[in-house]
Amino acid sequence: MSRKKYVVDLSSEERSELEEFVSKGEHRAEDITRARILLKADDGLTDAEICEHVGCGVGTPHRARKAYTKRGIAAIHRRKPDRDYTPKLDGRGEAHLVALACSEPPEGRTRWTYALLADRLVTLEEIEFDSISEETVRQRLKKRPEATPL
After folding, report:
1. Pairing with 143, which of 15, 36, 55, 77 sits 20 to 30 Å away (CA)?
2. pTM of this structure
3. What is the DSSP letter of 94?
4. What's the whole-number mean pLDDT along residues 105-133?
């Protein structure tokens, strides 16, 4: 048998935190499963034994151990906490978008399309964008049904 590349060695604080996390049942099922995997891996069980106890796929324990060695106990959550995302449209840009969607469509058109709105929003001088996707326009207008062009 080969030696595991990613070894889980939980401190007593991490272990108690994971046990509390699992026992509350207030979290997402997949997060609880990852926490249970880490606890079983710390107990020294093999991946196959962990799969039997937890009821997961064969590769899941390996991925959970690998994530734990890279990110620590935060690995029980799938999303990385250091994700850096800033929305392209702020409140001011969204207001321009809604006003544009509620206005008359361009000449020769009967209604606004998401592509037309995106193109027109980029050409406005009040807002400085290099580009904006049709999907961003769709998602923002979805929140405001009165402004949906289609």
Report:
1. 77
2. 0.56
3. H
4. 85
